Amino acid sequence: MADYKNVSKLNSIDLSSPHIPTSVSLLKQACIDSGFFYVTNHGISEEFLDEVFAESKKFFELPLEEKMKLLRNEKHRGYTPVLDELLDPANQLHGDHKEGFYIGIELPEDDPEAQRTFYGPNLWPDSDILPGWRQTMEKYHQQALEVVKKIARLIALSLDLDADFFEKPEMLGKPIAVLRLLHYGGQVSDPSKGIYGAGAHSDYGLITLLATDSVSGLQICKDKDAEPRVWESVEPLKGAFVVNLGDMLERWSNCIFRSTLHRVLGNGQERYSIPYFVEPSHDCVVECLPTCHSKQNPPKFPPIKCETYLLQRYQDTHADLSTYNKP
Description:
Elements: E1 12-14, H1 20-33, E2 36-40, H2 46-60, H3 64-68, E3 78-80, E4 99-103, H4 133-158, E5 176-184, E6 198-201, E7 207-212, E8 218-221, E9 232-233, E10 241-245, H5 247-252, E11 261-264, E12 271-279, E13 285-286, E14 304-305, H6 306-317
Parallel strand pairs: 1-2
Antiparallel strand pairs: 2-10, 3-4, 4-5, 5-12, 6-11, 7-10, 7-12, 8-9, 8-11, 13-14
Helix pairs in contact: 1-4, 2-4
């Protein structure tokens, strides 16, 4: 059954603070320790966040046949049904007990860049069914990216890089940014039986910005090699985002910074969350940063192109689209 006895104590970074060295110090400590932290005073109003969650709920309350009309495509846009995603095949009986909806950066089909793996037009619910839904999600997509850029400046400083290091055109100047609405239907997780809201995994990319409702469920494991693993709950903090680092940043930093295992356990309550995954551009080559290696600590990973890496990770964790009978 779900276990919430251990609560993680995460650093909280105030993005409005004028005292940058303090923010950088708190963030660096968090990135070395667990790769998870809170950010407050981020610039997105609570009223608007409440609106985004309300609109997300409206979508998931639609009949399944309506949602399946927007089944995710090859570009990972659209609806992901319950059990579609299998994040921890070694320990999960089935896929994750959650449903989701992917929204990427919108590009028209006639834009040459729309041919790239993670670019292109989004799938949207009919405006007659959910009026104003698309506009709300596009607005949030844009605002969330601005929050991530603020965090990226602090991360760059904490790695002894120029503050604008991640703002280059090949990085966050032209990012792959994916908003994902998630709904956990209220199943009770039982790790002893392989039943999870979301199986244990680390995120693929650079930074994940997570908005949650008030229902607990997220857990992290700081030492994935420990036997047995020790899991700590990350509690929702009103008005704050939970931020975690992805595997690309761990590679970039030569494992100085952590991309930590996390999972979601259902406790019988419905739960909504909205992660926002931010990666550099398709062609960005992820290789050890100049400040993160030395003769004593040589690079641990070979360079890899962002698009190549992401595509493989998505293919590894999602059901083949041919398994669905499309309407």
